[in-house]
Amino acid sequence: MLVRLLYCSRAVDASEGAIEAILREGREHNQASGITGILCYGDGIFLQCIEGGRMQVNELYATIQKDARHKDVALLHYEEVLERRFGGWSMGQVNISKLNHSTLLKYSEKPELDPYSVSGKVSLSLLEDLAATAAICGRG
């Protein structure tokens, strides 16, 4: 049974080294666990969609909730799926600093990443748009 989970969180340490460590560890874990997805990071906020087996995705989300590097973890969307949308990446990464602000404005009131102020469906649409427009900088 495949599921898709979308969450957001705030980075406790937004330094480049701390973010790189999270990405590196995530890619290693995801590949070993059969989890795929896409991550958008900007202004101290993570927006991530993860896909895979129900137990693997649920266990990963529980780990993220307990991870001291994340705060304000919020579940935005969860569903059973027939197929993966982000199956090509253990964790595709969007470089928010290179985005055209009009892309963000398409989905929110301000040209900034703020999944806390929009619905989970809107955040998922944003990630799908970013993947379709090749805004992925790390395909891990």
From TrEMBL:
Pfam families: BLUF
TM annotation in the entry: none
Record InterPro entries: Acylphosphatase-like_dom_sf, BLUF_domain
SMART domains: BLUF
Domain BLUF residues, every copy: 2-92
Gene3D superfamilies: 3.30.70.100
The protein's name in its UniProt record: BLUF domain-containing protein
Organism: Ramlibacter alkalitolerans
Lineage, top ranks: Bacteria, Pseudomonadati, Pseudomonadota, Betaproteobacteria, Burkholderiales
